[in-house]
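Dear colleague,

Following up on yesterday's call, I've attached the two folding results inline so they're easy to grep. Please treat them as preliminary; we haven't cross-checked anything against experimental data yet. The first protein's sequence and structure tokens come first.
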Amino acid sequence: MTEPDEQLLEGLLSGKHRALARTISKIENRSPGYRDLVSELYAHTGEADVIGITGSPGAGKSTLVDKLAETYRERGETVGIIAIDPSSPFTGGAVLGDRIRMASTVGDMDVFVRSMSARGTLGGLSTATADAVKAMDAFGKDKIIIETVGAGQNEIDIVRTADTVGVLVPPGSGDSIQTLKAGILEIADVFVVNKADRPGADRTVKELREMIDLGEGSGFGGGDGHHGPDAGSATDHGSGEPAGDDDDSSGETPWRPPIVETVATKGEGIDDLLSEFQNHQTYLEESGERAEHARKRYAEEIRTLLREDANSLLEDELQRAGGIEAVAEAVRTGETDPYAVADELLEPVEDCLERLETERMAGNRSR
């Protein structure tokens, strides 16, 4: 790691917000040396609670996150917020509109807000988000809140990054609940019916409870969620807790996602919501699921890094072959086809891997 990066790391670990901001910028821009910097962060992480807030557009996510941060600060806890904004398909830039709706903690240095671009990822999170979380964790933030774009069913990457996921469902959602249940609703650890003072809130709560009651039989609470296929077992409106007699194969009772009604603009229901978040954190510790989450998270990070690195290597190989335009033109004129091109580009990579495996086996035999 270069001397400037060492100074940047030292500043971050000593609690300098400027260093934290510069570190996240380096991470998001994938600037030279960012990987070494992130590698150094791992030894200083693992203390923060990471909370994901997602839901359909217009559900009031930014206002709710603002109130969550304000309440955590009143309790003496420090907060980091990552607001994932929709990105331009042309420039990759973010709209940054979330900051406009987060006004309660402006000027509070113990609430660090960072807007990041989704970079067009279907799962709602850019690959830099998890690294930015590590930076905030290493900095010493007690709570890290990730607010996602809220683009719909594909908004599920948050499961791989957050310990606890709150899904906002606006009143009067009606058929939209049915539409979302095959995706985004399955990831909820806590359901939040925000804007609960509006007509239709009671019906929305009732529909959510009925869906949860259906459990696995409706396909709800599937394996992509935090708590496996039994995660969506029956719950009553109120405190989340292990689901009674419905033990899973490991002997642990699955988590029952509670439903909390809030009116974020008035600060109503926020204390109840924070209590449910804490209940879920306690459940993760006592059930051992926190460790399992960490293993899955790191496995996915390794896969992501391998995909990125392999893609970069293949892009270099493609340039040596004349560039994508030349290769595409050869396909257009019938000289070759995409499968043949892929095989040709992968051949030197496969040959290299075979040589490494041969050398490894020879080394094992010589021991």
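Below is the second protein, in the same order (sequence, then structure):
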Amino acid sequence: MDSGLEILSEITDVKTIAVGRSIRELDRLQRMYGKGRWRKLKGVATVRLADDAVVFAEIHWYEAHGIGRKDFKIKRILGK
């Protein structure tokens, strides 16, 4: 989570967006973190931004079994 983003609550309403070859950044993920069954997911959580603001946001990330969750990013701020 080097994006200046700190997740403060449990991620809820988790949905899978893409799996395997349907992930556009699959080659980059495998180069950076290793081969695995990569999935792109989305969910909502309370997060702290780089400027210390706390907001409720939709977040996206990638994860693979044995590797973990990587590359969190905020897609939409839903409320303060």
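For the second protein, one point worth flagging: Residues 61 and 72 are 4 Å apart (CA to CA).

Best wishes,
A.L.
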